[in-house]
């Protein structure tokens, strides 16, 4: 269980997060939506323990996040960040094995090799296990990083998976596959929290959507509850139609075209 | 090729190059005799007829020089590899980014400010003081460069190299200033010190340098795994449970200990820290678990060979060893620069 209680965070005078509360149960797949600068990544940094909240608290499995040591935390939560530049030409399998670093001192055990292998197979990167990371395309690199992140907590159900735009730079197939993997992790009782930009992907895969605006939690509920033209306009300032796919009963969001004239006014040209 | 074999090959090459190196010079001593004389000294073999002159040349002059080359080479190789791990890029060469200049500045400052203590630079205490001072100078500079070049938790290559230019200039200016303000005695000491090269090797310099190099050589390989995680970024390394600040401090302290002390005894030898890990990565891959210890071995080997070339190329004149290392190292630097041009964001 991940519990967030009245979290506020600021840098200087700018309040980046205001009074955010929610809790997430193991097995839930939660998508965080919001416009640029709404505080999504900042929230993820608070949840990962990278940044400490100004006030309020975060607890994981009933224990305050700040009482975990770095290493304990590494066993209980894993993070996929947005930018993952690796300057030295590590091999893909070496990068994935880094996910097992919290679990061994000097040399990986058989179990570590096995988990790294399974994580690579699950994410479909085992075919380029021997390739050098910088030679991969952006989408492939992102999947390797996902494999690393999953390998870190693979055998720890109830662990927290924090994904900051996990599908950035991926083609449509990779996007669907990646979210399907995250969904299957949720089914194995992991706590999955992903920042997403694509509302349709969120509607398709998430059990629950948290919509953020100006550092606040604006909406929180199932896709059917929170995705409607009004909420989409409030959060993203775009007009959109929201349909329900009759066969899957999932929401489909179709933004209206923005004409050049409208664009000029909104950009104050 | 199995990694273990590479360590063995490097070690064997060091022994062979060492024996050749000790035999070469104005008085030529055949490798066989060198080997037997050293075995004799170690009490493993008893020689019937010891050539006293050769004995003296080897044990007073050439062996300390060889050992100094091994220590300095190992220091430059291993610290180059470790510093590149912390800075996350293969261009972080301690000389180029100003760490060696920081060491020089501190050493010159010690001579300039405290000449009375060091009236005789050749005493062991003087060496230790200089080595320790240079270590402090190198350490402070490294931390400074790291903080300056850090952007979003990752050191930026362009900022690092530019900051290196500035720090080099600043340290150079301050070193110049101290030199100008120095008294005649101090100036003599500074000049003598600045001429430092492997040629000044004595058993004292070797004894002084040994701990400053051996401690990092023994302790740094344990940071290999942490440095691999660093390649993902500081924040990502933290997510893997690593105490980022402790790792950074440990690696910077240990590597500047080796660089600082080396600089204080032999002056700046550029490009070794770049060349050595580069070759190792080509052969063994980029896993720091191997790059770090293997760089110590290859550093030692290359410096022995560079010293042989420096001494014999236009004998009896001896070339500064830095000329040889720069001749090989600078093109490698340019090569990496051109190869990675797209990746080096200059914004």
Structure description:
- The complex is a heterodimer of chains A (269) and B (347).
- Helices cover 35% and strands 26% of the residues of chain A.
- Chain A has 269 residues and is an alpha/beta fold.
- In chain A, helix 4 packs across helix 5 (138-153).
- Chain B has one domain (3-339): ABC transporter involved in vitamin B12 uptake, BtuC (Orthogonal Bundle).
- Chain B has helices at residues 3-23, 31-41, 52-87, 99-113, 124-149, 157-181, 184-194, 203-219, 224-230, 234-239, 244-266, 272-284, 288-312, 321-339, and strands at 150-151, 154-155.
- A two-stranded antiparallel ribbon of chain B has the order 1-2.
- Chain A binds chain B through residues 48, 50, 69-75, 78-79, 81, 83-91, 94-95, 98-99, 101-102, 106, 134, 152, and chain B through 88-90, 154, 157, 225, 228-229, 231-233, 235-236, 238-243, 281, 285-287, 343.
- Chain A: One of its GO terms (molecular function) is ATP binding.
- Chain A: This is Iron complex transport system ATP-binding protein.
Spell the H/E element sequence of chain A: EEEHEEHEHHHEHEHEEHHEEH
Strand arrangement, largest sheet of chain A? 6-7-8-3-9-10
CATH architecture of chain B: Orthogonal Bundle
Order of helices and strands of chain B: HHHHHEEHHHHHHHHH
Provide the number of structural domains of chain A.
Answer: 1
Order of strands across the biggest sheet of chain B? 1-2
Number of domains of chain B: 1
- Give the CATH superfamily of chain A: P-loop containing nucleotide triphosphate hydrolases
Radius of gyration of chain A: 19 Å
* Percent helix of chain A: 25-40%
**Strand content bin of chain B:** under 5%
**How many distinct helices of chain B?**
14
Report, as a whole number of angstroms, the end-to-end distance of chain A.
48 Å
| CATH class descriptor name of chain A | Alpha Beta
Structural class of chain B: mainly alpha
């Amino acid at each position: 269980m991940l519990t967030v209680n009245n979290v506020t965070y600021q840098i200087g005078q700018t309040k980046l997060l205001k009074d955010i509360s929610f809790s997430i149960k193991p097995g839930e797949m939660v998508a965080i939506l919001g416009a640029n600068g709404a505080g999504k990544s900042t929230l993820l940094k608070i949840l990962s323990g990278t940044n400490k909240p100004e006030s309020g608290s975060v607890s994981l499995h009933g224990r305050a996040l700040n009482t975990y040591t770095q290493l304990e935390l590494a066993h209980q939560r894993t993070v996929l960040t947005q930018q993952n530049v690796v300057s030295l030409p590590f091999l893909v399998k070496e990068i994935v094995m880094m996910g097992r670093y919290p679990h061994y001192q000097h040399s990986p055990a058989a179990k570590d090799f096995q988990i790294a292998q399974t994580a690579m197979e699950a994410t479909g990167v085992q075919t380029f296990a021997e390739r050098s990371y910088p030679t991969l395309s952006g989408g492939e690199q992102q999947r390797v990083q996902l494999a690393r992140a999953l390998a870190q907590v693979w055998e720890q159900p109830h662990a927290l998976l924090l994904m900051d735009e996990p599908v950035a730079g991926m083609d449509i197939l990779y996007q669907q596959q990646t979210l399907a993997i995250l969904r299957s992790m949720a089914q194995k009782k992991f706590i999955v929290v992903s920042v997403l930009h694509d509302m349709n992907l969120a509607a398709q895969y998430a059990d629950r959507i948290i919509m953020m605006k100006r550092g606040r939690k604006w909406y929180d509920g199932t896709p059917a509850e929170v995705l409607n033209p009004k909420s989409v306009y409030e959060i993203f300032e775009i007009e959109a139609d929201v349909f329900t796919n009759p066969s899957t009963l999932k929401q489909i969001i179709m933004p209206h075209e923005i004409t050049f004239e409208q664009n000029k006014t909104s950009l104050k040209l | 090729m199995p990694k273990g074999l590479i360590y063995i090959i490097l070690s064997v090459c060091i022994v062979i190059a060492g024996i050749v190196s000790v035999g070469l010079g104005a008085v030529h001593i055949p490798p066989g005799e060198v080997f037997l004389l050293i075995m004799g000294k170690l009490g493993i073999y008893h020689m019937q007829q010891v050539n006293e002159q050769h004995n003296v040349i080897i044990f007073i002059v050439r062996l300390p020089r060889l050992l100094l080359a091994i220590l300095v080479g190992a220091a430059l190789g291993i610290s180059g590899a470790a510093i590149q791990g912390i800075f996350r890029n293969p261009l972080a060469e301690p000389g180029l980014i100003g760490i060696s200049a920081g060491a020089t500045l501190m050493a010159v400052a010690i001579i300039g400010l405290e000449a009375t203590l060091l009236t005789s630079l050749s005493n062991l205490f003087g060496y230790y003081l200089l080595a320790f001072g240079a270590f402090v100078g190198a350490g402070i500079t490294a931390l400074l460069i790291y903080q300056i070049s850090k952007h979003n938790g990752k050191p930026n290559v362009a900022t690092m190299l530019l900051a290196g230019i500035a720090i080099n200039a600043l340290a150079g200016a301050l070193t110049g200033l101290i030199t100008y303000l120095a008294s005649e005695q101090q100036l003599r000491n500074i000049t003598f010190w600045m001429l430092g090269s492997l040629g000044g090797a004595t058993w004292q310099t070797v004894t002084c340098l040994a701990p400053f190099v051996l401690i990092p050589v023994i302790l740094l390989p344990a940071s290999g795994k942490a440095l691999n995680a660093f390649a993902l970024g500081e924040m990502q390394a933290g997510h893997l449970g690593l105490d980022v600040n402790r790792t950074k401090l440990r690696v910077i302290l240990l590597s500047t200990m080796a660089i600082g002390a080396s600089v204080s005894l032999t002056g700046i030898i550029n490009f070794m820290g770049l060349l050595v890990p580069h070759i190792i990565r080509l052969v063994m891959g980029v896993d720091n678990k191997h790059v770090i210890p293997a760089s110590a071995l290859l550093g030692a080997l290359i410096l022995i060979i560079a010293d042989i070339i420096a001494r014999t190329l236009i004998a009896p004149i001896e070339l500064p060893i830095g000329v040889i290392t720069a001749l090989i190292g600078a093109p490698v630097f340019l090569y990496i620069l051109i190869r990675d041009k797209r990746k080096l964001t200059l914004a």
